[in-house]
Amino acid sequence: MGLLLGKITVETPKYEVLHTCPDYEIRSYSPCVVAEVTYPAGHDRDAGFKILADYIGALGPPQNRRIEKIPMTAPVITAGEKIAMTAPVLTAGGKGGGEVTMRFVLPSSEYARADEAPAPLDERVAVRDEAAGKYAVARFSGVATEAAVAERVERLRMSLERDGRRVVGEYVLARYNPPWTLPPLRTNEVMLPVED
């Protein structure tokens, strides 16, 4: 019932809140290990989910060399696709050219480094260390449609510009709930990397 109502009961990435204002938070994220898959933009927005879920064993036997089930974490992160807008806002879900990368953050209690995680059987899955990073984050509920994401990213970018903060990369979309969670109870975040 918690999944339907949006309760997040799985591990989430570790971070420290550096600044809070009504429009966003600035967070410093700890290093972590991610499993990721990259696929052409324009495919199903969640095309990588099944591949990554197979790797960790969320939908059946784990598709990794140790046949080791890996606990699911949240959020599911997508990055890399351009969204058509009037401003130069880049990445995360939708249609267009380029590629999309979907990531699962692996449990930090089990994998401190990428070489500790089981090797994937599917060559499309890469397991790697993700460096620490500083992000401006804006949270929203509902379905993370292309239009909703584009609007939130533009609003976040404008708020950061207003406050004199410099964006240093492309945004990512973090979705914390499964698709059967009631839309008003879903947790989503758009994240823009910012300068130290």
Automatic annotation (TrEMBL):
Source domain of life: Eukaryota
PANTHER family linked to this entry: HEME-BINDING PROTEIN-RELATED, SOUL HEME-BINDING FAMILY PROTEIN
Protein name listed in UniProt: SOUL heme-binding protein
Organism: Zingiber officinale
